[in-house]
Amino acid sequence: MSTVDIKKPQMGAGGPKKITEGEADLYLDQYNFTTTAAIVGSVDRKIFVLLRDGKMLFGVLRTFDQYANVILEHCVERIYVPESNQYAEETRGLFMVRGENVVMLGEVDIDREDGPLESMERIPFAEASKRRRDGDEARYRHETAKGKQLARYGLLYDFHKSDMY
Amino acid sequence: MLPLYLLTNAKGQQVSVELKNGEIVEGELTNVDNWMNLTLSNVSQQDTIGNSGNIAFQKEIVKSQEVYLRGTYIKYIKLQDNVIDQVKQQISNNNGSKDNNSGNFRRGNKFGGRDNFRRGNQNNRGYNNNQSGGGRRPYQNRYENSQRPSSGSGMGGFVQQHRSQRDTNNANVEF
Hints:
The complex is a heterodimer of chains A (165) and B (175).
Chain A lengths: L2 H9 L9 H10 L15 E6 L4 E9 L5 E12 L4 E12 L4 E6 L6 H5 L2 E2 L2 H28 L13
Parallel strand pairs in A: 4-6
Antiparallel strand pairs in A: 1-2, 1-5, 2-3, 3-4
Chain B lengths: L2 H6 L5 E6 L4 E9 L5 E11 L10 E11 L4 E6 L3 H12 L17 H12 L32 H14 L6
Antiparallel strand pairs in B: 1-2, 1-5, 2-3, 3-4
């Protein structure tokens, strides 16, 4: 019995007509995935990931799942200090990021990636992360003060210190 | 190969976990479950204290023999660099005789990744089989033409299993 014979009964009467491979590919190209499946095209490419705490990770996307848990190989954490036109980098190796903490991720064009960095000054990572921490604290104080002000007028202000992105 | 699958295969290795509150827990991974709950042994735990700015990098270290970590409190996990290679090796050892390509992680062709997703979707029967409405064209019996998607895929072992299952009992493929 050929394979076609096995499959035919399952198709049922009045089954839809077959389409060619080319048509199928065309169809899939037009399909905009909005779930995590959208990043399937970025597998084995360099991507950046922004975390909820504001960290920026750069690395090669190896695998992912429906929660946007991602595995990044050759991962690098980078901190930008735009006020003084500086940045810092630290190599992190193989990273697994839990999807909950991901704000956004996207492919990086490796040809153009270094362009903006050339005009920036590289500083030690410890210094940059201290600057970042200080900035985060200042922001936290500012936002909580704002929240209290608004609360006096009976208004809600949504801010949580885990949302530092 | 899914991230959790990789993690389960990293058992016995040294990992470093950052929690959502910024604490870092380092130790040997002894067990993982489906919720990413972990047990670690020979653990050292460090917390950045003195957050008020003037003390920059002081850390408090707590050592303990065994620690259980709830998965939801994890921000990220740093694994050993060679984990991917090891898992690759394991997979190709397990079904090397059946499929020579199975250890290959890289996408074989430009559409390899997408094929992957297609497979996942097909397993999810009843998800998209609304044939009457919209411009959605049903898509049947793709695999008749022996034009299998390349087996080199980002998801390696898992997908292989799914595929062989589906080939036997779900020949009628719909979108």
